[in-house]
Amino acid sequence: MTSFDRKKNVAIFISGKGSNMMALINDMKNEKEHPGQPKLVVSNNTKAAGLVFAEKNSIETFAFNIEKIEDNLIFEEKTLQVLKEKNIDIICLAGFMKILSEKFIKSFSKPILNIHPSLLPSFKGLNTHQRALKAGCLIHGATVHQITNKVDEGPILGQTLIDITKNSDAKQLEAKLLPHEHLLYKKVLREFLKESGKKILTIN
Ligand code: GRF
């Protein structure tokens, strides 16, 4: 049996609007030959707007609010259980604003991808658009990478670049970048699941 004999079961983790999640789900649903299928959407926020889209698309969801420190452990244990039940092969973090513990990453033991709105290794962490502007950068972008237990680190699988137009603010930059994030994540996930080893670079 080759690794392509069955579609890989994909779980997507979100915290908010989930536009990257929608792009990934639509791509998997619309492309017959896609090597992955959306099986589960997980959120640390029961009010995440993206959950509605997942439910409308008949994709199972698991949401659990993290309100106090102890909830972190409960969230991760329950999530690991669901991932196992659904036989998930890969996790895509997409606007997921919680840091997964080393224990979770080890226990899952399969690939976890993440999209980060900067050209890593620059601007790890939050407020990336503001920080790129403040630094006087002429280019900005997003990165899809495989995660490790260090935040916003791990092998880079693809990057998309945009120019920073004069006088733009953080909101405008975010809005300009987002559609490119969607295209990048879709391409990276396809290549990653095909195990092609191909990396994606898009200069817009
Ligand atoms: C995106 O810029 C993503 O890269 C970041 O959070 C933003 C929200 O994205 N991590 P989404 O609409 O929830 O996918």
Please give a quick description of this structure.
The chain is 37% helix and 24% strand. It is of the alpha/beta class.
| Number of separate strands | 8
Reading side by side through the largest sheet, how are the strands ordered?
A: 3-2-1-4-5-6-7-8
Task: Report Rg.
Answer: 17 Å
What structural class do helix, strand and pairing data support? Answer: alpha/beta
Strand content: 15-25%
Give the end-to-end Cα distance, rounded to a whole number of Å: 40 Å
What string gives the helices and strands in order?
EHEHEHEHEHEEHE
Poorly predicted segments: none
Envelope shape: globular
Helix content: 25-40%
Number of helices: 6
Bound molecules: 5-O-phosphono-beta-D-ribofuranosylamine
Describe this entry's structure for a reader.
- It is a single chain.
- The chain is α/β, with parallel strands linked by helices and 204 residues long.
- It is 37% helix and 24% strand.
- The protein contains six helices and eight strands; from the N terminus they run βαβαβαβαβαββαβ.
- The protein has an eight-stranded mixed beta sheet, with helices on both faces.
- Helix 1 runs parallel beside helix 6.
- It binds 5-O-phosphono-beta-D-ribofuranosylamine.
